[in-house]
Amino acid sequence: MESIGWGILATGKIAHAFARDLALVPGAHLAAAGSRRLESAEAFTAEYGGTAHGSYEALVADPDVDVIYIATPHALHLDNARLAFEAGKHVLCEKPLTLDVADAEEMVRLAGVHDRFLMEAMWTACHPVIRALREQIWSGELGTPRHLHAELGFRVDADPDDRMLNPELGASALLDMGIYPLTVAHLLLGPAEQLTATAALSDRGIDLDIAIAGRYPGGALATMTASMTSYSSRRCEIATDRGRIHFDDFHHPTQAVFVPHAPGPGSWVVEPGEPMVLLGEELVIGQGYGNEIAEVGRCLRDDLRESPLVPHEQTLTLLRQMDELRAQVGVTFPS
Ligand SMILES: NC(=O)c1ccc[n+]([C@@H]2O[C@H](COP(=O)([O-])OP(=O)(O)OC[C@H]3O[C@@H](n4cnc5c(N)ncnc54)[C@H](OP(=O)(O)O)[C@@H]3O)[C@@H](O)[C@H]2O)c1
Predict the structure, then answer these.
(1) Contacts (Cβ under 8 Å, ≥6 apart) of 246
(2) DSSP letters of 101-121?
């Protein structure tokens, strides 16, 4: 495979951010974009290149496209992926993969039936700083994590029909934002043993704010929030028995800082040591979407069907957790 031809399915907000980063990734190019409206696809390809298609069906049939990036609202991901697999394309699908684990299992099954690559676009798991931090935490070098706190939220001022607020399209602070603290906790602490949530719901029954408490292997605890009504710190802090780690914009941080605390000899007093900055070995490409694009390219060149950074089982585990949390707070989707 010389340069991998990408087909972007949908031309909304994240599709633009993705296309900007795609242009920075060596060995990858935008072959085509597909939209429900031809004018929208044409405006998109005028900006980023490639062929414009006025339907998703025409996009997946394009022979210049090797892999489809699905950038529609979550409730549509499964149908879009089915279309792509049936046309013989590989798939990178936006997060959350689907609304619930049953649909995600079906998507994984379809990828297997058609022998195609499938990865959830969980860019955080491909991010160089998160990968470096994960390695260092698991090596024990930063001590044993005992408590993680992460929060992600911003005020959503959108039309009631917008995907962020419309239950028909899978609106949910948990699915949109809460997936990130849950993912970071999963990557850094391991699979949750217990999760409990409380939430504030909209008058249409979707979770606008959610707070989650979790217990992880070895007794590590996590507290996590997601909000569509307020501006959170977007920070993650981890307390270990050796010190404290913190990183801002935690789902795509530019760096993480470890502040060690060393006990003074013969005394109970602890003194903070020199902070240590973790950057990761690879460069961040663009906003960080470039790194997930590069990871898909690496997997396709190695003829893999799933990525070791975002394995299917990890995606399914996170969706199982979110199913359980939604059940606890009483959120169901019409579909
Ligand atoms: N990784 C990240 O950082 C990140 C950030 C934001 C969002 N996301 C994920 O990306 C997905 C899309 O989010 P977005 O913010 O880009 O959404 P958006 O701006 O609303 O765009 C969604 C696009 O999907 C297409 N679409 C097809 N059927 C639709 C329908 N019935 N209603 C609305 N749109 C429909 C439309 O494109 P056409 O008209 O061109 O067909 C629309 O522009 C979501 O699953 C979200 O979780 C990920």
Answers:
(1) 235, 236, 237, 238, 256, 257, 259
(2) HHHHHHHHHHHHHTT--EEE-
pTM over 0.85: yes
**What pLDDT was estimated at residue 124?**
98
In-domain check, residue 326: no
State which residues of the chain have pLDDT below 70. Answer: 1, 262-273
Closest CA to 60 of 35, 95, 43: 35
Compute the distance between CA of residue 4 and CA of residue 30 in angstroms, rounded to an integer.
Answer: 8
Output the domain CATH number for residue 298. 3.40.50.720
In a domain, 325, yes or no: no
The structure tokens 């998507």 sit at 107
* CA dist., res. 29 & res. 32, Å (int): 9
How many angstroms separate the alpha carbon of residue 110 from the centre of ligand 1? 22
56 and 156, same structural domain? no
Question: What pLDDT does 260 receive?
Answer: 86
Q: How far is the CA of 79 from the centre of ligand 1 (A)?
A: 14
Would you say the CB of residue 51 lies under 6 angstroms from ligand 1? no
Q: How far is residue 110's CA from residue 78's CA, in Å, rounded to a whole number?
A: 10
**What is the residue range of 55's domain?**
4-124+287-316
